Amino acid sequence: MHADVGSRLVIHGKQVGQVDRHGEVLEVRGADGGPPYLVRFDDGHETLLYPGADCELEHEHHGG
């Protein structure tokens, strides 16, 4: 995974009924956009994240 500062991430819930977590990349600490990432989730929690298989970049849709 390669992310930039300002990229949006989503971590999918692993269990039935568990909600997805959405956050914004505040810092990219790996080489060439690689992990780890300092992420602030929408609930205000910040953590250093090494994304797993349940994590992906959100794709923004721009009108055109």
Relevant terms:
mainly beta; 0% helix; 5 strands; five-stranded antiparallel sheet; globular
**How are the strands of the largest sheet arranged?**
4-3-2-1-5
Structural class: mainly beta
Average predicted local confidence, pLDDT: 90
Global shape: globular
Give the helix level as a range of percent.
under 10%
- Put simply, the count of helices is 0
Spans of at least 5 consecutive residues with low confidence: none
| Strand coverage percent | 35-45%
Largest sheet, described in full? Answer: 5 strands, antiparallel
Tell me the span between the first and last alpha carbons.
Answer: 27 Å
Helix/strand order, N-terminal first: EEEEE
Rg of Cα set: 12 Å
* Strands, count: 5
What's this entry about, in short?
The protein is mostly beta strands. The protein has strands at residues 8-11, 21-28, 37-41, 46-49, 55-57.
3D architecture notes:
The protein has 64 residues and is mainly β. Helix content is 0%, strand content 38%. It has strands at 8-11, 21-28, 37-41, 46-49, 55-57. It has a five-stranded antiparallel β-sheet with strand order 4-3-2-1-5, with no helix packed on it. The chain starts with 7 loop residues before the first strand and ends in a 7-residue tail after the last strand. The relative contact order is 0.32.
